[in-house]
Structures
1.
Amino acid sequence: MRSDTTDTMDVYTDGSCLGNPGPGGWGVILRDGQDLFDRDRELSGGEPDTTNNRMEMTAAIVALETIDGPRSIRLHTDSKYVMDGIQQWMPNWKRNGWRTANRKPVKNLDLWQRLDAAVNGHVVKWFWVKGHSGHPENERADALAIAAAESIQRQGF
């Protein structure tokens, strides 16, 4: 992958959970138009006892941590939790010592801090897509996430 910010990469992420909490999975599609063969790269994984929000966040984190930086990235997610968190809530949380407006500790703090670090160095534009609406890349990321969650469930963790 190229390492300058003049080339924009599209990233599609999704998370899934079989029960909430329960076995969960995440899926990522990395589309780099500068790739020699112009192919998508797919990533997925999961955890035995997690939540849907954690899997949505993990998908975005892994995607950003995988990309050699700095890059200009269009990150597409169907998670309002991730979108609102990164764009609206996080600046205030950081000013408040990672506490909410009610002075309570931020939920999923470990992942919010990891996401904050993963964004650093990239120029990321966030795009929300409606889940389960036929968006091809979102549907594929969803399928990857579900398959990862089902794999974890079959392993009996």
Note: The two ends are 35 Å apart (CA to CA).
2.
Amino acid sequence: MTPSPILVGITGATGATYGIELLRALRALGRPAHLVITEMGLRTLAIETDLSADAVRDLADHTYSNRDLAAAVSGGSFRTAGMVIAPCSIKTLSGIANAYGHNLMIRAADVTLKERRPLVLLVRETPFHLGHLRLMTQAAEMGAVIMPPLPAFYHRPASVEDIVRHSVARALDHLGLDHDLVRRWSGP
């Protein structure tokens, strides 16, 4: 039996590499990935990486237009194993926290929450002002995991890829997926 897919969202916040690395990790784990990229996510992808939008879409098993509110992932009867938005813009966070599902990204996140499935948000903004913090609190109270992609250094990263991989590994942990992307902490 094929496992339920993980829904991956890429928004216009800086850090498109987090979503790309998540798609690569899911592929390596043999887990199906479904993808939604916002319009600004496509723009940020072009600014921050050398990958085309089609190359990123090819990392997923299925992609959806952010404008398609009738897509399979817009309904709770379509089973997923959870959703990770990597990176998650404040605009998307605001839509989620306020249940304002005007596009597929936010609608799919809302469905993920209402169906009590894991929703992990790699919120990318700094510094946070009070409005950002309140939105994160609202989303957390609804069941989302707020996980800004902050680097850890106990594993002694040697590259940016090591830092990105660590955040992706932590997101996979919140989905309950076994992996060996990074060395786990076992004490000094």
Note: The chain has a mean pLDDT of 96.
